[in-house]
Amino acid sequence: MKTGNLWFIFINASLINNFVLAYFLGICPFLGVSGKLSTASRMGMAVTFVMLISSMAAYGIHAFLLWVDAPFLQLISYIVVIASTVQLVEMFIKKFSPTLFKALGIFLPLITTNCAILGLALFQTNKGYNFLESFVFALGAGLGFTLALVLMAGLREKLDFAEVPAIAKGTALTLLVAGILSLTFMGFAGLGG
Amino acid sequence: MQQKSPGKLQQFFHFPEGDGLATDEFIKGLWRENPVLVQVLGMCPTLAVTNSATNAIAMGLATLFVLVMSNVLVSSLRKVIPKQVRIATYILIIATFVTVADYVIQAISLEVHKALGAFIALIVVNCIILGRAEAFASKNTVWKSLMDGLGMGIGFTFALLLLGTVREILGNGTLFGFPFFPDSFQEWVIMILPGGGFFTLAFWLLFFNGMKARKKDNHTEVHPEKESVEEVYV
């Protein structure tokens, strides 16, 4: 029962209720960084990493805020933790892979304002997950985000060679493709049982 | 149309000192620099809560409140905030006002609060608000920032309403909860599902792009003499 539950949380976060395609969280990088396949997959990994750390931190903070009885500080403390995690990841990537740092560009600091990460912290609090469940939830959400981003990047690389009416070029076309992807992901609805 | 005559309006409300009424800052957010339809910012709430017109308006007003308040505070503190920590400061200011908005909505209507769910808290990470704080409020006077926030906020609400009405009418057969079609109407369930959000926004963008393209065509047709002169030279 216990492991089955964890497995369900994972499938739920990554496929059935994919953060990008079902909850519309993290649309900014989804539209912005999905132009190239290699950048997209690395961006996905960076986001997954930030998600894991901020999810664990959010669990601790929530417990602490309950203890000091100050739930109105929740939002502010979550966003501060996320901002510092992103700063940490940024320094890490800059040191170990300057090329990746350049490729991600402005979107790296913008992970701070990625709704997917704050959304994850809020959802896990609302759902009352315990520590292990939160961890699995964050992992599933991060991998689901990466999957959506990589799928989108692959489609857009192909679309670059297609002939499209001038008015549809850019965001409108990307949104149409995202809509079809979202419909596809609805097919996973039966998986969780 | 309002946006065509900012000059006349400014002349009409002539203020002797300062920036006047700064109507231009207000009007640009409504149309020319509309945050959703032109700048394509703040997509999460735009798509997530627009499955009904009521939700769209509630979300739009909450964002408007946070946008105006944070713009005013950031602008009045713009000479005090050190440059290195400005983004963190802006986010803290925004998060404070969002917490206020969250509790106020909860006090006014529990139903709306439930429908919007975590998305009220997610106003913190709405790119429009941080974007306006960084790009506008940190460089301009309090009055101008107030007008900018109002304009952008109303433009955002307008765009949300465009999406919300279409999705509710087609997906639910109602408008603001009242029946819109006769009973025989078969709802397009897909419109209130996530996919419908993407499609509706894509169609609105196509529509506005098409209008812009047409306007440009008309514009070139207005001056045929100029072109013919150039052709003679060629």
Précis, in short:
The complex is a heterodimer of chains A (193) and B (234). Chain A is built from 8 helices and no strands. Chain A has helices at residues 2-16, 27-32, 37-68, 74-96, 98-104, 115-127, 131-159, 171-186.
Verbal overview:
The complex is a heterodimer of chains A (193) and B (234). Chain A is an all-alpha fold and 193 residues long. Chain A has one domain (11-182). In chain A, 73% of the residues lie in helices and 0% in strands. Chain A contains eight helices and no strands. Chain A is globular and about 60 Å long. Chain B has 234 residues and is mainly α. A two-stranded antiparallel sheet of chain B has the order 1-2. Chain B has one domain (2-7, 17-233). In chain B, helix 4 (53-76) crosses helix 5 and helix 7 packs antiparallel against helix 8. In chain B, 42% of the residues are buried. Mean pLDDT of chain B is 81; it is low at 1-6, 9-17 and 223-234. Classes of the chains: A mainly alpha (193), B mainly alpha (234). Chain A binds chain B through residues 21-28, 31, 72, 75-76, 79-80, 83, 109-110, 112-115, 118-119, 122-123, 126, 166-168, 171-173, 175-176, 178-180, 182-183, 186, and chain B through 40-41, 43-44, 47-48, 87-88, 91-92, 95-96, 98-99, 102-103, 117-118, 121-122, 124-127, 130, 190, 193-199, 201-202, 205-206, 209-210, 213.
